[in-house]
Amino acid sequence: MKRLCLYPIGLLMFLLLLNACSQEETPSQEDNPKEQGSIPLGISLEQMALQDLNDEPVRTAISHLSSMGGTTTSKNMGSNLYDFTVDTSMVKVITHDDVKSYTFPIKRDHNDGSFFENLVLQRNPSGNLQAFLVRYHLKDGIRALAEHGSFSFEGRRELFSLDLERLDVGLVEKNDTCYDVVELWCHFGGNDHPAGEMCILEAQLTGDDRLFYKESMICLSWGSGSGIPEGPDPGNGEGGNGGGAGFEDPYIITAPTNVALYEFQLKEFASGKLSQAERGYYNSDPNIKNIVDGYLIDNGISNLAMFKAKNHLSLGHDLSLTPQKFVWYFQHRDSGEVEDLKQYLQDQSNSAKARAFGKESISAWMDNGEVDFEEEIIYLLEGYPCQKNIIQEALAANSPVTDLVRDIFNSNVKPTITIQANNLNGILEGGNTHAQNGNPLHYFITMNTQRLDVSTDIDIACITIHESVHALLFYFLQAGSFQSNNESYAQLVEDFVTYWVPNGGIGSPEIQHQYMQNLVSIIADSLYNWALKNDYNPDNFDVFDTVDSHNFDGMREYFGLIAWNGLTDRDAFKELYPPGTLSYISALQIINSESFPYEYNANPQGEPCN
Predict the structure, then answer these.
(1) Are residues 197 and 286 in the same domain?
(2) Which DSSP helix (H) or strand (E) runs through 90?
(3) Phi and psi (nearest 5°) for 419?
(4) Which of 38, 216, 235, 402 is the most exposed place for a label (fewest CB within 10 A)?
(5) Host domain of residue 513
(6) Which of 189-198, 249-258, 400-409, 548-557 has the highest mean pLDDT?
């Protein structure tokens, strides 16, 4: 915090100012505050929307203020106290030493254009939050500066203290009546203007002296009994203490901001640039409009900015993004993920299925998921990095099943898959698969977290392949036809469609499991290929070699048994391993050893992740 006025002359002048600051009389001020020379870059300024602020008390304060509205009345406050609205689309967040301030534009219905106002919330080193309204009385109007998305003006300042108790953000500090109002300004192209984020970034790059302070010693004006103005008060007065090399305590730091300047241009953007559908989406929610408006203003509402904003709104409309999803997308519009999404939509000719997958992709990114656009698979497995790698490797293994999952039937109607992790309320269930209503050809595989927490890599790979078969069968139900380069697998599916569809369809897991008895060998082949790729050695499985007629090695026979996981209640399994026999008990023990490796007498061949 900067020093207090301790020198005798400065103290005397300060006391005289305090004495002059009364409700009956305010000090005269010059039209323009004093300027300091160039300043070091020991200050930061960021521009963002309210929802991006990482300061909950500030968000709460603005929300509380907004909920009051302009005509709020109650026994605790008179009407017309808050006869303004706060624009939350472009907040200037300034950090100076251990002080942080938030500057918001303010709008009033009865503003005659002779002034504009800012709400300034400032957190001081003590941690207390103070609220002020700064009113700028214009001498010759406002001049727009498109180069920096800013504006320039001259005029007199007026200061009001807002009642923090009404804003529900903390205690009111009412001891101070005069403040050193410090504004951050920028030299650029011969036009001085309030600094924005662009000025700060360019100053950091160039190291030049474009940043400077304007300082005014301003005593509080008094409107209503709470210190909140009821309307414009031109006042008269003088001010302007340059402050030397530092600020006088107490001080308020801000950078004037004014959105009203651009309202006409924004209306022209909506009516002249956007299609009817884009305009409807733009106006459908204040969060969408605010973040686009802030972007346009930051870029001087240039033709390039309007062109880009139009494209972003078009994508948001096409994907039917909720306001929350659009805000996330817009904030990450230049990221590699979003570029991949746009390329995918272009490659898929912006089809309905591609749009649905794109919308799910944004949801996945918001949940820290990963998206594979080439294979059209979403992974929502945050907190399970080891298990995610196993699942990805299981789907990458070459086999009839996994090849079809990655590139199903070489068809033009390729399904998409989301693989997620949730507690399925029972460790016996490895996972489940379902199709989402309203999302064509998108299937959701849910891996049971209770199993992921304890089971081995072999069990996880088996569940992955098992559930991918369910996804294929759902595809057959929706697509009704297919093409395949794998004739043996194609014949199995033909048999499935021919027999099972007339006998109750393929939507129920029970019917799907009944048919999947025929696919156990293919599941086992997939597991075997996955195991070889992950350095499992057949020589270590000799104990399971029964020298059967298929001439499988012991590892292939072991995975032939593991492939029955999830299907041990089927008739085909019971025929191979009659219930009550030692072979039945042994088979279940082997399967369960991979699913529950920490249980008594378990002897798994695989390795748990944890």
Answers:
(1) no
(2) none
(3) -110, 120
(4) 38
(5) 375-609
(6) 249-258
